[in-house]
Every structure is written in structure tokens, then in C-alpha cells.
Design brief:
By secondary structure, the protein is an alpha/beta fold. The protein contains 13 helices and 8 strands. A hairpin with a 2-residue loop joins strand 1 (85-91) and strand 2.
């Protein structure tokens, strides 16, 4: 069986045949004009319009050449979109809901969401990465569709959440993985990294803070609660959990807020409004102070273990400001820092740019 010529090879072959045919036809036309006998009476129209004839041939060659160079883009456009599936698994006495996509034998990327959302925030990112990576996004305890039995008497803290998600990775037999951390996902993932640094192959931090200089002025009311954990200061934070406030967190700092789809903040508001969940969130507001106390440990981990780091940041985030992204270079000089012109929930408006940056970063470090 013969081999199929590549596009470029076919274009060259077509050019050779075309030039030979044109040369022969023109020679016959010259002989016909020089003699009294019309050798090619039926081709008169062709010769009178030979400029059109030549142009059409050149156009065909150009089209084939363009097709050759466009082939990778066509192939990419026709690439099947990976399906994101949903699952549940028991770990640490918790019924964990998670989303997954990609080949089971591919390098693993563990995506950890933040407040007030769930794995739903990765709904558009996961298909853009799943052709090369096994992407897994759990709902953290207290969020999304993860369920905790009442008899578990779960104490909501970031230490407990990190312990549960560590157990989740072990239940799935994930020996090594890259981390994608955002907001609350940052202290969760970095606590896991402190416990098992050998498991972390790389870190993508998207508005996931690990430095005090990254805490913006929007933290002021929560800082007050840290300093004085009174009932009055706790109650003062309840408006932050209202549907309007949750929506504002999606829209603040976004140049074109009309681009933000309503599904995310609408689902967040519905899930946080479940009985008992508001107090879970207030407990986590208070406990976030313990994450700040761990920042020096996170930074020591960066210096000693030297994981590859990409910090990709919505530069208009009022909670985790750009200084937090730049600070990663203090302890990881080779960290890549990139900004996009949007707010806290950068994936809502810049998912393709962030996916491209993540793919390039992980490919450059050949993560497993």
C-alpha cells in the first residue's frame, strides 16, 4: 500500500504537473497560430483567458499550501472535547463529591477551589486541560455537594479540611500530582505539601495567597474578627454571605462584568444558604488567621523543596492583591508570575488564557 503524501508534498507535485501542462498547451497554441491548420479549435476560449487559467492554478497551489500549514490548527479544532464526569468517594468519614476528566494514566492535576464556590468553578477549565492531564477537582468540606454525616462531628478548620483532602487523594491512590490552588484552596493545598512534599510535582496558584503582603484592604473586617472574636464582630461578617455580596465578589474588578455568567454566584448563594452553613463559613473566616500564621512555613517549603511555581493572578482582585503574586519570587526566584485584567474569579473571564499558561507551564516541567 502506498503512502499518502503530506499536504506540502501534494502541493509540490500539483505544481510540477500544472507547469508541465501549461507549457505544453502554450506550445501547441504557438504552433496552431503559426500554421494554417487550427490544431486546438476547442481551446480558443482557454487561451484567450489564459491569465484566468494561470491564476486559478496558482490559487489552487496557494490553497493547498495554506491547508498544509493550517493542518495543526484544524486538527486542534477537531479534537474531541474531554468529558467531565462526577463521582463520590468516602474519605476521612466524609462523602466527597468530585469532578474528573482526562486519561487515568496521565499526569494528575489536583484543583482546589476557594470561597464561596466549589469544584463547579473549574467546569470550563477542566476540558481545556484534560487531553494531557488527569484533572480532579473535589468539593472541600463545607462547600458544594460534599456531605458530612452529623455523627462525624466535623470541626471546620483549614487543618481539618487539608487532612480530609489528603485522605481523598490517598483513597484515589494519587501518589504524585501538581496542585492548582485558588483562594481557600491555597492554604489547603500548601498544608498538604508541608505534610508530603514528595507528592507535589508543581504548583499553579491562581489568586492563591501565601504572603501577608498579598492580603488586600478587603480583609479589614475579618482582621477585626481575628483580633477580637466577639459575637458582635462575628455578626458583622454575616452580610458578606448574602447573595448580593457573593455576586459582588465575582464582579468586582472585572472590566466587563456583563461577561460573568450568573450560574456560579447563583449556585454558591444557594449552597451557602443551607441550614447551618453560614456558621461554618464564619468559623472558617476566623480560622483563616491560622493560615496567615503558617505563611512562614509555606515560604520555608518553597525555599527548601523548590517546587516549580506559576502564579497567575487576576490583577484587580481586592482580596488577594498583585503583591501576593509577586511575593512568590522572594522564595522561588524562578517562579513565573502572570497577570490578567480581571478580578478574584479570573476563570470566569480568562479561562482560555489561564488554561494556556497552565498547559505551557506544566509541559515545561514535565509533571507526572
Amino acid at each position: 500500500m502506498g503512502q499518502t503524501l503530506p499536504f506540502v508534498g501534494r502541493a509540490e507535485l500539483f505544481l510540477q504537473i500544472y507547469v508541465t501542462c501549461v507549457t505544453c498547451l502554450l506550445r501547441l497554441h504557438q504552433i496552431s497560430r503559426a500554421s494554417s491548420t487550427r490544431l486546438l479549435p476547442s481551446y480558443k476560449g482557454v487561451f484567450m483567458n489564459r491569465r484566468v487559467f494561470v491564476a486559478s492554478g496558482i490559487g489552487s497551489i496557494a490553497a493547498m499550501t495554506h491547508q498544509a500549514h493550517a493542518k495543526p490548527a484544524i486538527k486542534e479544532a477537531l479534537r474531541p472535547i474531554p468529558e467531565v464526569s462526577v463521582h463520590r468517594i468516602s474519605a476521612d468519614g466524609v462523602d466527597i463529591f468530585y469532578r474528573e476528566a482526562g486519561p487515568v494514566d496521565a499526569p494528575v492535576l489536583l484543583l482546589l477551589h476557594g470561597f464561596p464556590t466549589s469544584s463547579f468553578q473549574y467546569r470550563e477549565l477542566m476540558p481545556l486541560l484534560a487531553d494531557r492531564y488527569r484533572v480532579i477537582a473535589p468539593d472541600l468540606p463545607g462547600f458544594g455537594f460534599t456531605e458530612i454525616p452529623a455523627e462525624r462531628n466535623y470541626k471546620y478548620s483549614f487543618e481539618a479540611i487539608a487532612h480530609t483532602i489528603q485522605a481523598f487523594t490517598e483513597a484515589l491512590h494519587l501518589d504524585q500530582y501538581a496542585l492548582y490552588i485558588f483562594d481557600y484552596g491555597a492554604p489547603t493545598g500548601l498544608r498538604m505539601a508541608l505534610q508530603h512534599p514528595e507528592r507535589i510535582t508543581a504548583i499553579v496558584t491562581q489568586n492563591g495567597n501565601a504572603y501577608e503582603q498579598g492580603l488586600g484592604a478587603a480583609w479589614a473586617p475579618i482582621r477585626t474578627y481575628w483580633a477580637e472574636p466577639t459575637q458582635a464582630n462575628r455578626d458583622a461578617l454575616r452580610p458578606f454571605l448574602s447573595p448580593d455580596s457573593l455576586k459582588a465578589q465575582y464582579l468586582d474588578g472585572v472590566p466587563h462584568p456583563e461577561q460573568v455568567k450568573p450560574e456560579g454566584y447563583t449556585l454558591d448563594a444557594a449552597l451557602i444558604a443551607r441550614p447551618g452553613n453560614l456558621d461554618i463559613q464564619l468559623d472558617l473566616f476566623l480560622d483563616y488567621a491560622n493560615n496567615v500564621k503558617l505563611y512562614p512555613e509555606f515560604q520555608r517549603y518553597f525555599r527548601t523543596t523548590k517546587p516549580p511555581i506559576l502564579a497567575v493572578w487576576g490583577k484587580n482582585d481586592p482580596f488577594f492583591i498583585p503583591a501576593g503574586a509577586e511575593a512568590y519570587k522572594i522564595d522561588t526566584p524562578n517562579a513565573s508570575v502572570q497577570f490578567v485584567d480581571t478580578g478574584h474569579f479570573a476563570l470566569e473571564t480568562h479561562v482560555r488564557e489561564i488554561a494556556a499558561a497552565t498547559r505551557a507551564f506544566l509541559a515545561s516541567h514535565k509533571t507526572r
